[in-house]
Write a structure and sequence with these properties.
The structure is a single chain. The chain is an alpha/beta fold. It has three domains: about 230 residues, no CATH class; about 140 residues, Transcription Regulator spoIIAA; about 140 residues, Transcription Regulator spoIIAA, CATH 3.30.750.200. About 35% of the residues lie in helices and about 15% in strands. The chain is built from 21 helices and 19 strands. A six-stranded mixed β-sheet has the order 2-1-3-4-5-6. The chain has a four-stranded parallel β-sheet with strand order 15-16-17-18, covered by helices on one side. A three-stranded parallel β-sheet has the order 10-13-14, with helices on one face. Helix 14 links the parallel strand 16 and strand 17. Helix 5 crosses helix 17 and helix 10 packs parallel to helix 11. The longest helix has 21 residues. The protein is globular.
Length: about 625
Amino acid sequence: MRKLALSDEILMRVDKAARYIGNEFNSVKKDLSTVDIRFAMCFPDVYEIGMSHLGIQILYEMFNRRSDTYCERVYSPWPDLHAIMKEEKIPLFSLETQSPIRDFDFLGITLQYEMCYTNILQVLDLSGIALFQKDRAEEDPIVIGGGPCVYNPEPIADFFDLFYIGEGETVYNELLDLYKSMKADGSYHRAEFLHEASKIPGIYVPSFYDVAYNEDGTIASFTPVYEDVPKKVKRQVVMDLDASPYPMKPVVPYVRATQDRVVLEIQRGCIRGCRFCQAGMIYRPNREKSLEVLRDYAIQMLENTGYDEISLSSLSSSDYTQIEDLVNFLIEECDKRKINISLPSLRIDSFSLDVMSKVQDINKSSLTFAPEAGSQRMRNTINKGLTEEDIMNGAELAFKGGWNKVKFYFMLGLPGEEEEDMRAIPELSNRVAALYYDTVPKEQRHGKCQITMSTSFFVPKPWTPFQWARMYEPNEYLRRAKIVNDTMKEQLNHKSLSYQWHQADVTVLEGIFARGDRKLSKAIAYAYEQGCFFDAWGEYFDYQKWLDAFAACGIDPDFYTMRERDVTEILPWDFIDTGIRREFLEHEWEQAKAKVVTPNCKMRCSGCGCKSFGGGICYEG
């Protein structure tokens, strides 16, 4: 009988106790006496968010296919349980065996977004593992970071033993084999293992690199401390998605997760080249799974889970070569099984609307457009490849198809943005609302038109052409949002328009972390000690505590946000070789300033450098 780490009395006191008991349907059970390696896979956010993350499900499947390895899961305890665990000195535990995390060989932490950085420290703290890598004991787990944020791991480098740069299906087995062999022959010592691991492609051990700074705070040099440690760490990429592991029996949570459905990954990468989009760059080249494999995966996963919905996972589903055949198959299969289909990332065209008419119920939900910018000159700046004619044609098709609710996603604070570009957001939305009343006869309307505008504030990300761009202070972002809001009220169809905007101070903090250096780690640790965690959750975010942390640690936040970087500056992430040529990013930065659109990868190769990986769209397009 498995003993729970938390007593019944504690489980009765916390919100959603099912987050912490494990034993979910399809969770893996192994005999600990038969395994050599124990790997705790962590998503540093609440259970419902972490259980929706496809990357963890893939690695959980891959690691547990190994007979010598047991991969278990752990998530950030919600603040109510956090307080109890601190007070009663209960160590953080895994879900599968309810074992203390400190008993594991590895603690792998997924770094999906910057605002979870203090939750990393929460996980280490509750596990009884020293926050800083330099303070860890020989018997502590090796702490690994992976995920999108590793493309600039420097702000949190001091907390990790190593980072895995790239897609996890490639060299993780090599890393585990190294650990197992060193343990078996008695040669294992923490430092020696890290030294050998640093020679594996894609493995970055931050303690083996020295950073020197110029008087102005910029980086002067970034050098390995050993001759046999690589100067550049090369991103690892899976070129054959059909052959890579995929969870045919994903774990089904007790608590309703954010993505409570079967997730079918149809491709990786994107052909579009939007200049603000980090995912579109770091997941290059675009690679597809075959239709045959996807059909098989869909059937197996539906049968193995009992879910009543399936969703496609992709940065741009409409660009999948066989999207029509796949969707038609899913419609037929899901109709037989009474399963719902979710089709995100589809362009609004006649095919997509026809499909959505088939998969949505009679009360059509809203359609989502992501123009990202209101004016054509700004859409050209960001290389969106979308004209106003495209937007209006899509909206007209939607209105004639019976939809009357549209969500528009935009960004404010983009490079080169002027007041006319801000005002263009509600002006475009007004024209779309007018189109509804002009094209849909009164007797055929399903109520009034509802246009929801939502703006986030632009954050420059590493490995994008905008990585050199400046940001603004929170009040400036709010000023821009006010221009949008005031302009909306002036529109003829303002009663059909509504407007929402993101938190400005959260945006600034995200921007500091996104392009920060190692000097930030002490501020992150200081903020955690002052009670900062779950910063991605509005009710727990306290911007003043972060300002106090920066002040206490002698850090000027404006250094990371308010200046445009020179293209000659050494950036904190320049030691990574993503396959993307710096010359390509510099050229795209200049093209943005000139408001010139670069064709997508299917139209013409732009020479980004990812052809070096030897497959995908670079060879098949």
